[in-house]
Amino acid sequence: MKLKRALVKKEMSNINTLKLKKIFFFPFKYGRMKWDDRKAEKLLRNVAKTKKNLKKKKIEVAFIVQMPEIWDKEEPIFQYMLENDKFNCKLLLVPTYDFVNSQLGDYGTELEFFSGLYKDTVIKIIQNGKVIDIEWAKFDYVFYQRPYNNYLPKELKNSSIAKYCKICYVPYAYWPFKDPSVGLDWTFLKYTYVVFMDSDELCKVLLNKHARTYKKKLQYSLSFGSPLLEKIDTAYSLCDNGGKKFRLLWTPRWSQDDNVGGSHFLTYKDDILKLLYKYQVQLTVRPHPLMFENFIKTGVMTKSEVQSCKRDWGSQEVILDSNKAIADTFLNTDILITDISSIMITYYMTGKPIIYCPPDNIEECDTYRKMRPGMYIAHNYQEIEEAVDMLTSGSDPRWRYRLEMINKIKEKSFDATKKIVNWIVGDYEETNI
28 pLDDT band (50/70/90 cuts)? Predict the structure, then answer.
């Protein structure tokens, strides 16, 4: 009798297990939404509820910052909010990421940069190697500089902060690729409440990717243009350098991986020095901030080879640009030689000529394709030299096309900062009636 009861109990246990698998595991494996998608949607829904009817005097906004080099994208928004009585803003400063050792470094130039600009609003969020206690729930919105969580400690990942605040993101770079999957972190974006894209193309991609949460108004993707591009002054005279040396700027990409655009650094680093003597120009090199660190980490170059390269440049009076504000570098150069990069459109907006070294197997976004007729395309060093020869002789036949294209781009970004800030105000007021 006991044996029979045991067999019945075992059989019932098997049946219950099958029911559980059918009810609880089937949707995750075969359904439309993965487990982490459901988790993200739940957080977005919960934070939307908790941020209702708060009746606060000011909108509390935090900006998590780490890299001075890309602050120019968020700076117009932060400054606009600082001057607006409706906002109370803080900068939460994280040390720059040590790419070689895959860990946060110590505070250094980033602390000097941000404290020099906004001493009273900066909070060092990492102290003694740990994230300090922050009352996240008091913030209504938190802006991130980059759409990547792997450079931040667990406590600062947007999946953690999304429990308490609405996550906002303004692209740190104008996305140059047609394929949005190149370099985008979908895990980050699924926890982001609103993305202020600079192009309609990427907005459509996000709307399709997160259609369910957008339909429920748990997430937003908006295209108001670029806050950075709206303020750039186009003051360029046709290759007129006032009789001084032409100043060339070379900006090689950070990775040799063709899947993310590749880099022509090793291809041209020796030949490009010939321009110094043949055309009596000044050369400034501004590699991507992560280029040398990535080359060392991936074995493309050794640390001693990097040091030797820098010494060689120094001996030939090549300027290795370490200016945190890239706008100043653009102002002090005449011609850009570059791999595919987000900075291309920023330099383009100055009206100055660009010698573009395109990747072999990646298509540019629609805006970059339209910019092409205003640039000089170089597939090898010989073509770089031919373009430099023409431009330094005072001929820039693609100048007028650039001016026409610049006006179209500016039209798209007109009042971008104001539109973004007004949207935040509207969203806050709508949920706090």
Answer: very low
Can you give the C-alpha Rg of the chain in angstroms? 25
From the number of C-beta atoms within 10 Å of its C-beta (0-12, 13-18, 19+), residue 363 rates as middle
Res 239: pLDDT: 57
Give 331 or 15, the one with higher predicted confidence: 331
Environment class of residue 285 by beta-carbon count within 10 Å: exposed (0-12), middle (13-18) or buried (19+)?
A: buried
**The one-letter amino acid at 102:** S
Print burial letters for 211-250: b (CB count within 10 Å at least 16), e (below 16). Answer: eebeeeebbbbebbbbbbbbbbeeebeebeeeeeebbbbb
Kindly state which CATH superfamily the domain 37-227+414-431 is placed in.
Answer: Glycogen Phosphorylase B; (3.40.50.2000)
Query: Where does the chain hold its CATH 3.40.50.2000 domain(s)?
Result: 37-227+414-431
Query: Which of 191, 199, 215, 137 is CA-nearest to residue 365?
Result: 199
Q: Where are the beta strands (DSSP E) in 40-86?
A: 59-65
Level-2 CATH architecture, domain 232-412: 3-Layer(aba) Sandwich (3.40)
DSSP SS3 for 142? strand
Which residues make Cβ contacts (< 8 Å) with residue 269, sequence separation at least 6? Answer: 252, 309
pLDDT at residue 236 tops 80? no
More confident residue, 15 or 391: 391
Start-end of CATH 3.40.50.12580 domains in the chain = 232-412
